[in-house]
């Protein structure tokens, strides 16, 4: 695979919210999580842990945490990325965001769809549902499964509107 194939791969990843009911094998889930553990983290602290959620009752509780977690209820499984704020108090959220993206990219490589469902406004609810201790923070909740839709790319901001050179305000379009 050449670099252009890699770039095309990155450009084709989409957030998938509708899934087929087909199960995802445990072997495939573990392959994806094995890749996720290779994500970069500050000081190589690796403050993440992963919870695979397949139990329909637990999935349903998580799918009702807020208005935008519904896709989890329609997915064969969820993966919760949990950060240990004692292991990496300053950067656990960023570190876990890296691991989350590795999960999403690995899932895409295997043909699975994912969508990142925000957790940070409902930390205590998710901790209670999953039995997490206080120092374990759910940073991301992913709905995972075989896609039952092909989302089209949404518009993105132009580089000239978001790239600054040397100092904030020196936009690329002035460069």
Strand percent estimate = 15-25%
Structural class: alpha+beta
CATH class: Alpha Beta
- Low-pLDDT sequence parts: none
- How many distinct beta strands? 4
Please outline the major beta sheet: 4 strands, antiparallel
Percentage of residues assigned to helices: 25-40%
- Shape, principal axes of CA atoms: globular
Strand order of the largest sheet: 1-2-4-3
Radius of gyration: 18 Å
User: CATH homologous superfamily name?
Assistant: NADH Oxidase
Quickly give the CATH architecture. 3-Layer(aba) Sandwich
Total number of distinct structural domains: 1
Distance between the termini: 35 Å
Note down, in words, how this protein is organized.
This protein is α+β, with helices and mostly antiparallel strands. It has a single domain, classed as NADH Oxidase (3-Layer(aba) Sandwich). A 4-stranded antiparallel beta sheet has the order 1-2-4-3, with helices on both faces. α2 packs across α4. It is globular and about 55 Å long. The chain starts with a helix and ends in a 13-residue tail after the last helix. The model has no long low-confidence stretch (mean pLDDT about 95).
């Amino acid at each position: 695979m050449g670099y252009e194939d890699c770039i095309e791969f990155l450009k084709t990843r989409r957030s998938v919210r509708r899934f087929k009911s087909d199960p995802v094998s445990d072997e495939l889930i573990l392959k994806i999580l094995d890749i996720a553990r290779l994500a970069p983290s500050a000081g190589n602290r690796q403050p993440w842990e992963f919870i695979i959620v397949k139990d329909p009752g637990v999935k349903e509780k998580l799918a009702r945490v807020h208005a935008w977690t519904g896709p989890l209820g329609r997915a064969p499984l969820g993966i919760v990325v949990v950060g240990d704020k004692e292991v990496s108090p300053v950067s656990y959220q960023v570190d876990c965001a890296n691991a989350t993206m590795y999960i999403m990219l690995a899932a895409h490589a295997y043909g699975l769809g994912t969508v990142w469902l925000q957790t940070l406004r409902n930390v205590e609810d998710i901790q209670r549902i999953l039995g997490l201790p206080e120092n374990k923070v759910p940073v991301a909740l992913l709905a995972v499964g075989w896609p039952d839709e092909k989302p089209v790319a949404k518009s993105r901001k132009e580089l000239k509107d978001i790239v600054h050179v040397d100092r904030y305000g020196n936009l690329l379009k002035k460069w």
